[in-house]
Amino acid sequence: MNDHFIGSKFRRIIPGSPVLIGCPLDLTTTYRHGCDDAPSAIRASSYSLETFSPFFWRDLEDLSFGDVGDLSFVGLRMEDGLALIEEAVCDGLAKGGLPLCMGGEHTITLPIVRALESQKPGFVVLHLDAHTDLRQHYDGTGVNHATVIRRIAEVVGSDRLIQMGIRSGTREEWLWMRDHGTLLQWEALSDAVLDRRIGGRPVYLTLDLDVFDPACMPATGNPESGGWFYADFERLLRKLQRHDVLGADVVELNPRLDPSEASSIMAAKILREILILLARSRQ
Q1: Structural domain boundaries of the chain?
Q2: In the predicted model, what is the mean pLDDT of the chain?
Q3: Into which CATH architecture does domain 18-281 fall?
């Protein structure tokens, strides 16, 4: 096996290339805590993978990318933690990097989208998740892992939101998706449908790992049966190659629920493929 490909060689931000940012935030998780361990677990699990992707027929050794390490949220309140993420992403964008963030809870996506909207407005948010995350308020607050996509829709507009893999939510959330037309059913996915929904705009990808079926991704805080398998993700990657992808995040891995490390290894493989997707998107 190769040395782990994440964080082993590059610490600086390289203009026009992906930059990894670890965001181990776990402040509003309500069922099973532990996603703050995810960035370090993904880095460690990447030891098990080769740098070569047979799917893309590309090798990370031939591509440029940066890794600025993990942010520290010790002693910070939620609003301060989100501000730290937004500042880090803004800094990466100002230096020409393409943010690829490792959560942490899904709330980290809100400051990333805010940073992108301030510097690269007009993109579409592609949201992969088992859950709607569209509540107006949850557990007494308006900003948390259950409301994050509702807050993002307020930033970019519902017409720039595409949701896939959803299979759990309140009646009100399902009605919101229906009324705003944000849900794209897996059965309806085709190049033509995705092209029409994206409409030639850049894409930001936010991937909650519980979009996958617990049979292949058990180590998430809120697993939901009936989800995707890895081959489904590759099918989407193949279609996203046709589009300008300007950043991504991978969230909600919980390594404390992963005694076999299979989920962490799968998350690391997903990161490898997204790294190559982002690098290809810029070439």
Answers
A1: 18-281
A2: 93
A3: 3-Layer(aba) Sandwich (3.40)
